[in-house]
Amino acid sequence: MKKTVCVVTGTRAEWGLLRGVVKKMEQSEILRPSVVVTGAHLSDAFGHTVAEVEADEAPIDARIDILKFGTGSALSTAKTVAYTLDRFVDYFSQARPDAVLVLGDRYEIFAVGQAAALLEIPLIHISGGDVTHGAADDYFRHCLTKMASLHFPACEEYARRVIRMGEDPATVENVGGLGDENLRNMKLLSRADLEKSIDFSLEQPYALVTYHPETAGGASPVGQFDELLHALENVPLHVIFTKANADAGGADINRRIDEICALHPQRYKAFTSLGVLRYLSAMKYCAAVIGNSSSGVVETPTLGVPAVNIGRRQEGRILCPNVICCEADAASIRAAVEKALTPEFAQLAKTTVSPYNGGETSLRMVRGMECFLTGPRCGKPKIFYDGE
After folding, report:
1. How far is CA 24 from CA 18, 28, 184, 345, in A?
2. Are 144 and 113 in contact (CB under 8 A)?
3. Which of 65, 197, 217, 383 gives the lowest tally of CB atoms within 10 Å of its CB?
4. What is the pLDDT of residues 362-381, one digit of tens each?
5. Burial per residue of 198-229, b for 16 or more beta-carbon CB atoms within 10 angstroms, e otherwise
């Protein structure tokens, strides 16, 4: 009888990474994936991106709506975590999967991890060991690491960090990054097909812009985003926006995006979600990726695309030579963008070597889960590893 692995996804970006793992699990003779869709996927305000999961013909077992308290404040986030814990305790106690697979660092995934751990269901965690000082995601991610029994970090530095957190090296495997694997294996759209698909002219150089709220440090999300808009006014780029996530302040940023696109429809175009194929295709042909999304520092190195990383949200991650960091004020952003657009920097970016190339990342994860779920460690209490 196959082992059921419950794969939980709450955002468009997360599913874009998990989809390949789910497809590989469906080919396994040992594992059976069972997908649970939650969070922003089920919200019209964030694009109802469950449609993307459905389009991939994923084996969806449940849709669990958790955003009843909204996304506008730290209080709503705290209430959502509590509510998500309650909903997933109910779901897991009835479904009783053999393991739960989660990716990353979001607050709803933190609650999912708690539910699994409290019900003694083994938790498997992708992308532990990262550091992002500018986001509350930092401690959500580290808490997930301590609840998880099996770890798939994205590079060697992060794997070593997970082990230093007291995780047994036998449970930690550096498998590379799923975003890097997508870019290496996915057949991306041609420039002409992308232009047709998004109904937006790509004749002029353009930037791919994603800006999420900084959830640590008390900065104003809209204030910072307005600084970005002021900087973009004076650079020779059209812009494709992908909207902000469901963190507190994200909805306010998205309203500003709608306003600027309505004022300048020939220059600016916005999407709640491009989907993984169009997003990565847009990254391939853009002059620069601008904002503070993890894709700007994790995925752009694979394509050798210039990236401007604004503010502190991604501070602490590995930064490759194609990434320019700047403060979240208009002057600093404009200077960074102008540098990114120079021929010299574009050439430098092309020579970047990604640290996230782990080969067949999805397959390696599936093989690791097969070994764990059929081996003697599964279901045993964790130990704290003190090192050699």
Report:
1. 10, 7, 16, 38
2. yes
3. 383
4. 999 999 999 999 999 898 88
5. bebebeeebbbbbbbbbbbeebebeebbebbb
pLDDT per position as a tens digit, 132-182? 877 777 889 999 999 999 999 999 999 999 999 999 999 999 999 999 999
Over residues 54-99, the pLDDT tens digits come to 999 999 999 999 999 988 788 999 999 999 999 999 999 999 999 9
- Predicted pLDDT at 250: 84
Q: What is the pTM of this model?
A: 0.86
Q: β-pairing, 288-291 with 150-152? A: unpaired
- Residue 209 in 3-state DSSP? strand
Sheet containing 268-271: order of strands: 268-271, 238-242, 206-210, 288-291, 307-310, 323-326
Smallest CA-to-CA distance from 198 within 258, 264, 271 is with 271
* Residue 220, both tokens: 């104003």
Q: Tell me the C-alpha distance between 287 and 279, whole Å.
A: 14
Whose structure tokens read 């994860």? Answer: 365
Q: Residue 282: exposed, middle, or buried by beta-carbon count in 10 A (0-12, 13-18, 19+)?
A: buried
* Alpha-carbon gap, residue 292 to 141, rounded angstroms: 18
